[in-house]
Design brief:
heterodimer, A: about 260 residues, mainly beta, eleven-stranded mixed beta sheet, five-stranded mixed beta sheet, globular, B: about 325 residues, mainly alpha, two-stranded antiparallel ribbon, 13 helices, about 35% helix, about 0% strand
């Protein structure tokens, strides 16, 4: 009786082990594709991020902010693995928190592989800023396009703050060329985990996006954003470039589901 | 005799009817938008699509593109004035508002790298969005532009026919516009005829004027397009109410610079300069000879000022008038459809 019980346990454990092991060791088939999902969970420091919050958020500079708009472009997504990088074609997404603070981007037709890191651009590459009429996320109707100085607004943050001049802050970050260009690349490693993309397996990476970083000076500096000093800009320039340096740091890897 | 004469008439009438019928059946045959002889390769090349062209032409002349349906593109860009606006120093928008700059002439746009006086618009397809969404010009928003056309049954049908789409988007609108605007050519002035070998297309004064032009003006206003598309401070002011190209680049070296305009059809497209401050070509020439205001960014291609005798000025202006292209200003394909 005891032996049978013991035997059953071993059998069960073995089955479970084999079950798990089987998924992880199926070698990738370069001719097959699967799905990769990227979840972007937006927070403000330790709090969940939302528009029109009942209580304002407090920045590092001890200023109060309530957001009415927070939108930005994610583009040019690349998935990296030990044996090469996959570049997503037509890779343009507009993240708009009006549609929820935890958007999930679904990447289809991803070649089977064990991916270790993701890279993407915050903003839109210069090529698409100089190529005329576009479609999809890059249509001019999304409120993210300047007509008088052709180009996309890469990130738009608007809201109210008692410290802002006139009570409102308006930050339209853009500019695709020259000294003040504002495209920023983000590279996020999945740490010790890998995203196992298979025809029948769709891993999902979960990143935390800390919107408070908009107002935090670059790492190692105490140069925090002073809303009372600069409460708005709506064109390319040094302020836009500085804010882009700040928000380049807002993405962090949290975990990954296979 | 009488019989043979009436047969001849009948034959002519029959031929005319046949010709008219054929013409109606294939309207495309009447489009002739080959790039002008002697011009470089254009910056924008589109496969010609007559449905896109006709839609672009209709949009250009339709006040539906202004917030109160009062103004079309054609209101400030008149064909007889080389698609500039006669007698208006500044563009005149919805609700009696004035823009801050002079509406430019429109032709040979397929060669133009940037648009507007400050070059802020970087592609021919994006150009219409500037005036359409400017609150002091046509006053629509980027969202209301397609919404307005989608609410119009005629446009719904036309876009469906041209693009096979049930929903009109900014993309379709801009493609149609670019097809029309990119097909407006001006390249058949007396000057062009002269260059192509008709030595009597210019008289002696005009030929003298051409020599003066080549010596003093052509480095900026370079043939055959009569501009090099650079941005230049041409010495109009000591301080800049309108900072021009600087507004786009925030680069100090661009302060007070504006795009060098083409001089084709210049006799038709006054008033002159970005703010329309000069009404006659004589005033323009006098500016370059006697009234230059020199600042840090003044173009060294015009500074120091040139020296011209009264006769030379007259010859130069006579030459500039040979850049007027009547075939272009009267071409029915550019008129309202």
């Amino acid at each position: 009786m005891k032996t049978i019980k013991y035997f059953t346990l071993v059998l069960l454990a073995t089955t479970l082990f084999i079950g798990c092991d089987k998924d992880e060791t199926t070698p990738p088939d370069g001719n097959k594709t699967g799905i990769f999902k990227l979840e972007l969970e937006h927070v403000f420091a330790s709090q969940g991020f939302q528009l029109n919050s009942t209580n304002p958020f407090t920045t590092e500079n001890n200023e109060q902010v309530t957001f009415t708009t927070f939108k930005y472009f994610v583009s040019n997504i690349k998935l990296q693995s030990a044996n090469g990088t996959w570049v997503q074609p037509e890779s343009y997404y507009l993240i708009d928190i009006a549609n929820g603070a935890k958007p999930v981007l679904t990447l289809n037709n991803v070649p089977e592989n064990d991916y270790t890191a993701i890279e993407f651009m915050i903003g839109v590459d210069s090529t698409r800023n100089v190529s005329g009429a576009q479609t999809g996320a890059l249509a001019t109707t999304t409120g993210m396009f300047w007509t008088w100085n052709s180009g996309y607004i890469f990130l738009k943050a608007e809201g109210t703050s008692p410290q802002a001049n006139g009570g409102n802050f308006v930050y339209h970050v853009g500019g695709f060329g020259g000294a003040n260009k504002t495209q920023r690349l983000v590279n996020i490693s999945f740490g010790s985990t890998k995203a196992i993309v298979r025809e029948d397996a769709a891993p999902q990476a979960h990143l935390m996006v800390d919107v408070a970083k908009l107002f935090n000076g670059a790492a190692g500096t105490t140069d925090n954003w002073d809303i009372s000093a600069v409460s708005e800009f709506m064109m390319p320039g040094q302020d836009a470039s500085r804010m882009a340096n700040n928000y380049q740091t807002m993405f962090a890897f949290d975990h990954l589901h296979n | 005799m009488w019989l043979s004469k009436s047969y001849s008439i009948l034959t002519i009438v029959l031929l005319a009817i046949t010709w008219a019928a054929c013409k109606r059946e294939s309207p495309e045959a009447s489009y002739n938008f080959d790039y002008p002889k002697g011009f470089p390769k254009p910056k924008y090349e589109f496969p010609f699509n007559p449905k896109h062209y006709e839609l672009g032409r209709k949009l250009f002349y339709d006040p539906i593109l202004s917030v109160d349906n009062s103004i079309s593109c054609g209101s400030c860009h008149q064909q007889f004035a080389a698609f500039a606006q006669v007698d208006h120093p500044l563009s005149h928008g919805v609700n009696g508002q004035f823009g801050k700059r002079n509406a430019p002439a429109l032709f040979n746009l397929a060669w133009q790298p940037t648009f507007m006086w400050d070059g802020g618009i970087n592609h021919i397809e994006l150009q219409p969005l500037g005036p359409i969404t400017n609150p002091v010009e046509m006053g629509l928003t980027l969202q209301s532009l397609p919404a307005k056309l989608n609410a119009d049954a005629t446009y719904k049908a036309l876009f469906n026919d041209a693009f096979g789409t049930n929903e009109i988007t900014d993309y379709h609108i801009l493609k149609a516009f670019a097809q029309f605007l990119g097909s407006i050519y001006s390249a058949n002035s007396p000057y062009d005829q002269y260059i192509q070998g008709q030595t009597n297309a210019l008289d002696n004064d005009e030929k003298q004027g051409l020599a003066i032009f080549t010596a003093h003006c052509a480095s900026c206003h370079k043939a055959p397009l009569f501009t090099d598309y650079s941005f230049s401070n041409n010495g109009l002011d000591l301080t800049f109410n309108d900072k021009g190209r600087y507004l786009i680049t925030q680069n100090d070296t661009d302060m007070g610079k504006f795009k060098v305009p083409s001089l084709r059809n210049i006799n038709l497209s006054g008033p002159y300069m970005h703010d329309g401050r000069f009404t006659t070509l004589e005033q323009v020439i006098d500016h370059y000879t006697t009234s230059l205001k020199v600042t840090e960014t003044t173009d060294n291609r015009i500074n120091p000022a040139i020296n011209l005798s009264v006769l030379e000025k007259q010859q130069l202006i006579k030459f500039l008038k040979t850049l007027t292209d009547e075939e272009f200003t009267t071409n029915p394909l550019y008129a309202p459809n």
